[in-house]
Write a structure and sequence with these properties.
This protein is α+β, with helices and mostly antiparallel strands and about 180 residues long. It has a single domain, classed as Aminopeptidase (3-Layer(aba) Sandwich), CATH 3.40.630. It contains five helices and seven strands. It has helices at about 15-20, 25-35, 40-50, 100-115, 130-135; strands spanning about 5-10, 55-60, 70-75, 85-90, 120-125, 140-145, 150-155. The longest helix is centred in the middle third of the chain and has 15 residues, at about 100-115.
Amino acid sequence: MPAFTIRELARADRRAVAFTFGRLSQQSRYQRYFHAKPELAPRELSGLLDVDHWHHEALIAFSPPPRAPIGIARYVRLDEFDMAEVAIEVVDGWQRQGVGTALMVALTERARAAGIRHFHMSMLRDNAGARALASHLGPATVLAAAGNVVELSYSVSAGSSVPAGSSGAGSSSPSPPSPAPTATG
């Protein structure tokens, strides 16, 4: 697996966030945002950079030289102090190479240190990569399912962990539980 680096996202990373978004295919954008998203509005980009590394944490992964941004993982704390919503995006050319898993491991460690015990994730039911990545967190609790969107909760307490040597988002790990089948489109 090629070496890549992960560090905290900084306000100065505006171009890197825009670059990462620009390297997501239409399908990857749809899977991340749940609708067609041709661009990030300036206000959305500013919101993604408004990170305090406590209530809103974000990490960015860079490829080996020439060091291009290849993925971003973030959590945003919810109303309940020990819960946070999680989102991860990896540029198409780097999917299934362990970037998502490495970002999840680093994000989980930071979340634990910040007192977060549960990650909430919303994903499209047919997003196999997201399901495989989420399965590294362990058993899921289904919070809601409507149409093709499934909302799950995972424990990130000290007893659960993302295996350090686990494979990336394209692995054949079991997926989180699926609520009653619905049509996908």
